Amino acid sequence: MHQGLVHAPLPQVRDLVLSTAFSASATPLRVRKDAAQGWIEARGQWWWCGRVEVHEHAAGARVVYRIYNVATGLAGRLVPVTVARGHRGPGPLLAELGERLGCRTELL
Predict the structure, then answer these.
(1) Residue 7 sits in a domain of what CATH number?
(2) Per-residue pLDDT for the chain (108 aa), expressed as one digit of tens each?
(3) Which of 18, 27, 54, 71 could form a Cys-Cys staple with 47, CB 3.0–4.6 A?
(4) Radius of gyration of the chain, Cα coordinates, nearest whole angstrom
């Protein structure tokens, strides 16, 4: 799990995350979202599920990025090694949110 702060009003951050997260993927994704709860989730390939959640914070909005291993069997035990090598965390998403909203962001 990775977290960051976006120093902008929660509704603006939530709307932007729900409309842009996972939109630039090079691989086909199955995307689900719950606007009321403030999360968007994408599943790609056969082993990966990513979720971005937006929560209220005194400084604006706390963005949480999680990657889940959804593989089964032996592959399910090997995937965490692959995920750890390529996991970028929320840095690019936070940078995009800060640029588009004209505000400061920070990793937690």
Answers:
(1) 3.30.310
(2) 889 999 999 999 999 999 887 776 667 788 899 999 999 998 877 777 889 999 999 999 999 998 887 777 766 666 565 554 445 556 788 999 999 999 999 998
(3) 71
(4) 14
Domain residues for the domain of 73 are 2-107
Count of the separate structural domains present in the chain:
1
- What is residue 46's three-state secondary structure? coil
Which tokens is 29 given?
């994704």
Q: Are 105 and 94 in contact (CB under 8 A)?
A: yes
Which residues face 3 on adjacent strands?
Answer: 64
CB atoms under 10 Å from CB of 48, counted, come to 19
